[in-house]
Fold these 2 entries.
Entry 1:
Amino acid sequence: MSLLIKNGEIVTASSRYVADIWCEGETITRIDRDITPPPGATVIDATGKFVFPGFIDPHTHIYLPFMGTFSKDTYETGSQAALVGGTTTIFDMCCPSRADEPGAGFATWNAQSTGKSACDYSYHMGVTKFDAGTEAQLREIVAAGVSSFKIFLAYKGAFGISDEELWRTLKLAKQLGVIVAAHCENETLVSERQKELLAAGKTDPGQHHESRPPLVEAEGVHHLMTFAELTGAATYIVHLSCEQALQQALAARQRGVNVAVETLIQYLLLDKTFAERGGFDGAKFVMSPPLRDARNQSVLWHALKSGLIQTVATDHAPFDFARQKPMGQADFTKIPNGIPALEDRVNLLYTYGVRAGKLDLHTFVDVASTQAAKIFGLFPRKGTIQPGSDADLVVFDPDWRGTISAATQTMNVDYSAFEGWKLEGRPSVVTVRGEVAVRDGKFVGKVGRGQFLKRTPNHF
Ligand code: URP
Ligand code: ZN
Ligand code: ZN
């Protein structure tokens, strides 16, 4: 198996030049001008196109039992959607409920993914309780190749953990050299505000934001930062949505707390008015933390551009509008939380970030690929283009024009939060470890070829 990508403009987080990329087997082995392919090699002409490293989504929920239902994608459908959109590696949240043991949760996620993914993948291991049996199981899971934990300071009674459990998780993470990804919202404030809103007859999707305003998130970040400072654990704040929360993270970073920050393509492009749409349409836009007032968007873009925020993810959590979102028709607290975006993240970030002049090409690659590889221990195997790296490559056509629509998407969900949005550019060819998986916007790869990526601790 050999592959030559010819004449593309290679763009990484730190370099930009025209050259050919020669891949033997699964690996990039040479980058040079005018490489002559041997007979039988697959040759892709990338003249006039960019060649980016495979993009990495550090936060997805391909499989998620949640709020009385399940997220709609499977590893089969979700991984194909990821690849069509240029994402060659995903980090799925392995989230057992509090009733389940971590070891059993890990086995469940493996049963969902093994032999079924078309793209490469890893997990963040959800720590949704911490009792006498937890530590030994977490040690085994880390030894099996998962070097990041995931905790929730929200979702009382489901995934949320107590302060005592938070303390123990961070102490263990520090000891093991594992980074802790965290959903930061104060769950007591959320549940008290939810009760008050419902008691006042405020049941529509627009109330979701009122139940979890920016201060609720900022308080969650402050809380995590205090625990991180006292334990010395490395932390990663997932789906940060607003200025107040960012300020808390930055203040902690200034004090020396090891914290990386993720925002989402949804927060960069959508605002809370979408969730306030009438006729229950707003339910399509209900996620946690909620979409914010639009003025937060320029804060997030600026923080990305200046390196204060490290990554852009999707938190891909697809629930059908027709059959799942209506679980919260009469009560916004029961709307399954999540806005699908796995397929569209890269194209949206390119169109509304790079083309709109908000991000340069290097920062685009950095926040959508390289930083995730570095923070979570996959660099330089993933996240860049150099000899020795996996041949995960995105040949990106900047002249392609199109429109997002649920009718044509690969994600297994019945709506798009970005319906009708114009795109300027998309991947024309995507490779995973040396094999072509996408051509002209269509999946042509192999389901089951995706590998579980083993990671070792102490990578930050
Ligand atoms: O609304 C969201 N974010 N749904 C997925 C679960 C989570 O909190 O990440
Ligand atoms: Zn979350
Ligand atoms: Zn999530």
Entry 2:
Amino acid sequence: MLRKKYRVGILGATGTVGQRFIQLLENHPQFEVTALAASDRSQGKAYAEACVWRLAGEMPTSVRSIKVAPPEPPLDCDLIFSSLPGEIARAVEEGFAHAGYPVLSNSSACRMDRDVPLVIPEVNHEHFALIETQRRARSFDRGMIVTNPNCSTIMLALALAPLHRRFGIEAVVVTTLQALSGAGYPGVPSLDVCDNVLPFIDKEEEKIETETLKILGRLRESSIEMANIKMSAQCHRVNVTDGHMAAVRVKFTRPASLEEVTEALASWRSLPQEMELPSAPERPIIVRNEPDRPQPRLDRDSSKGMSVTVGRIRPDGVLDVRFVALSHNTIRGAAGAAILNAEMLIALGYLA
Ligand code: NAP
């Protein structure tokens, strides 16, 4: 039996992540884009007129004539994907949730709220249970706010999750090399970043250090007990268009050989894979053995941008093990992450 598709509205539809949503949702089996919203610069115009399409390939014809609306209810859709700037996201997303819309947000605004699930479906889909607490606490009826993590955190937490489960993790030291598209458009001025590396990304280190602990934390009745892991993150913006990289060092609670670590990463499959959700990669983590991989240009599109590639797994002279991880920041790190969350919510009956 053919099920009617969920009608989707995208907030921040003209931006870097918004365009990626539109690209990934073209021909999606469960969703069709019916509403688009952006700033007053774009409102009232047809999407094709408001948006300068910056992804490879053509803007999907199905969205070209949709009129860009203000980001406020009502919108002609059943659920909302939000890619609004953090400064305005909270009020807007709460407004939609109060009006009865499920909101799946990329923004950092509500991620660390105690009653807001911060979810990577392979890692902590059970945290969706916070939705009931949230609805009671905020008097939402059918609405909800569900978030996906920061683009670097997703990559890191995905790579750490099978290791934490198998060996326990005591400490993590991570150094990121992050792509330009992570700053949105137009992002970092070219004269600042050409022939250069910028050792500062506003609030990024704090986000990685706190969000990872919430994601790897345990659901205890109506809240999350943060994981007890010492975290240290340093973040850098590098001259790469797409694909965040992270050099990671880990200290385990129990001894683990390199073979066991490699096997734990490479063999890991979780509920989205078992349920064959449309956006779930066959393997959340792809382990590469070549000495010079992963690389952004070669590995960011693994499994259509939804797998994290891990390589250079080695013993570490200070902690226990080190490796390099890489993932596509606007796909697994943003739009693809929110879409996979929505697919998981449907599969678990939260969007009935
Ligand atoms: P972006 O390229 O700057 O796009 C921002 C979008 O928000 C545009 O559609 C813009 O519309 C709209 N907007 C700006 N101010 C607005 C306002 N006052 N009212 C309504 N709409 C407004 O940014 P982005 O990179 O897509 O990031 C969007 C969000 O996703 C941010 O919260 C970011 O932290 C998060 N995120 C980004 C990435 C990434 O890799 N880029 C990854 C994870 C999470 P106009 O075009 O009309 O101005």
